[in-house]
Design a protein that fits this description.
Layout: H1 13-21, H2 51-70, H3 81-98, H4 101-112, H5 122-134, H6 138-151, H7 156-169, H8 172-184, H9 188-200, H10 205-218, H11 223-240, H12 243-256, H13 261-273, H14 277-284, H15 294-306, H16 313-327, H17 335-344, H18 349-362, H19 366-378, H20 382-395, H21 400-408
Helix pairs in contact: 1-3, 1-5, 1-7, 3-4, 4-5, 5-6, 5-7, 6-7, 7-8, 7-9, 8-9, 9-10, 9-11, 10-11, 11-12, 12-13, 13-14, 13-15, 14-15, 15-16, 15-17, 17-18, 17-19, 18-19, 19-20, 19-21
Length: 412
């Protein structure tokens, strides 16, 4: 039997890095790669630009005029290192604020324009690692972080990001090393959270949850630390099947940061698992017309269907067009999003399990494993189900959702 619910345990990394890296500036634009396309007429609309891109375009025109004035007669140095670093930081800030893939592309283009004869500052490399992580180029992201740490082993930001990327790819030995280094640096809150994240997916979830909850009660923390601890507690409680605690922690994060798309997605998926689609709809409706929040749109369709409510044809058409565009990327496509669409909306189970498998080769967070298990059950792929069981045995992962999928043969 197929139950129309899901979760997508997206990485906390982007939220975490945005909070850490938001210390910088505002905006620039550069070309980004696009597929070759010949319009049929001069009047054909090729692309509706998102607010993020139009904002970048406006700022870039102003900045270009300023730079041309400041660097007149010196074409070889169109931008100083300081100007380029500011533009990179600004573009990254805008990309994370609007969750716009084109803006992430512009940020990467700016980084690639860095003069080869000049060493990149650590902050530029940290942003580079974050952008590479966003595009699922995890090994390349870790290389940037390795460079930062080789020059500055005490760089806390690099170690925090390194631990999060390693969690995503399932390199738990690397996570443990980074947690130890963070603890040795004397940053106890981050060290505790790092260790708890690792323990929560390697067989010690209840102990990890208790440690985080005690820290939230006993230790003074700033807003950033509270959000990280609360998200850790929420996801761990959800995996353990402690529904009331999970929802309470998710809602506390949203009360502190109402604009957090990651938390909105996580809470919405959780509510769908709890057979509460109406509550999920309330959270997701603001994203119905957002061009950059495909995951939220997919969740919204599932919630509407789960509530027995009609789905707007324009919403389905928008999702379908975006999926078609992503499929043209081939191996570089975001396989998780494709798998979610194929599994829950198109109900193309054979294709869904292929996409989920490609995603799982890159990302092995519990949400990715849940997606693979659900696709394997829907497509009746017993070999893939055994692969998931083997991973659980190897790592000690405790996840009531995955156990439900495998034991009851129901898709979550």
């Amino acid at each position: 039997m197929m139950k129309k619910t899901t979760t997508d345990e997206s990485k906390k990394l982007l939220l975490f890095q945005t909070v850490i890296l938001l210390v910088i500036f505002i905006v620039f634009l550069s070309e980004t790669r696009a597929d070759s396309f010949v319009p049929q007429s001069d009047d054909q609309v090729l692309l509706t630009l998102s607010p993020a891109v139009t904002a970048i375009a406006r700022s870039v025109r102003a900045q270009e005029r300023s730079l041309e004035s400041n660097n007149a007669g010196n074409a070889a140095t169109q931008y100083s290192s300081r100007e380029l670093a500011a533009a990179i930081s600004e573009a990254y800030t805008l990309a994370t604020r609007n969750n716009d893939p084109r803006a992430f592309g512009h940020t990467l283009s700016l980084i690639n324009a860095w003069p080869q004869q000049q060493p990149k500052p650590a902050m530029v490399r940290l942003i580079h690692a974050s952008v590479l992580q966003h595009s699922h180029e995890f090994m390349a992201a870790l290389q940037q972080l390795d460079t930062v740490l080789s020059n500055d082993p005490a760089n806390l930001q690099a170690r925090l990001i390194y631990s999060q990327v390693s969690l995503v790819i399932g390199d738990y030995e690397a996570v443990a090393q980074q947690c130890q280094a963070i603890e040795a640096a004397g940053v106890q809150i981050y060290a505790l959270n790092c260790g708890a994240q690792l323990q929560s997916i390697t067989g010690n979830a209840e102990f990890a949850l208790s440690a985080v909850e005690e820290t939230l009660l006993a230790r003074p923390t700033n807003a950033t630390q509270q959000i990280e601890l609360l998200l850790n507690a929420a996801t761990t409680a959800e995996r353990l099947g402690f529904a009331d605690r999970a929802e309470r922690y998710y809602r506390r994060v949203l009360s502190m940061n109402p604009q957090s798309l990651f938390t909105t997605l996580r809470l919405s998926a959780f509510l769908l698992h709890q057979s509460r689609p109406e509550a999920a709809i309330e959270l997701l409706r603001p994203y119905a017309n957002s061009a950059n929040d495909l995951e939220a749109q997919i969740l919204l369709v599932r919630a509407l269907q789960g509530a027995g409510m009609p789905v707007n044809a324009e919403l389905l058409a928008s999702i379908g067009a975006e999926i078609e565009s992503l499929q043209r990327l081939g191996d570089e496509a975001p396989h998780k999003l494709l798998a979610q669409y194929q599994l829950y909306i198109a109900e193309d189970f054979a294709t869904a399990v292929r996409s989920a498998t490609l995603n799982w080769k890159l990302q092995k967070e519990p949400g990715d494993t849940l997606l693979l298990a659900s696709a394997a059950v829907a497509s009746e792929q017993s070999q893939t189900q055994e692969q998931v069981r083997a991973w659980i045995t190897k790592t000690g992962l405790q996840d009531a959702r995955i156990q439900t999928v495998l034991s009851a043969q129901e898709v979550l």
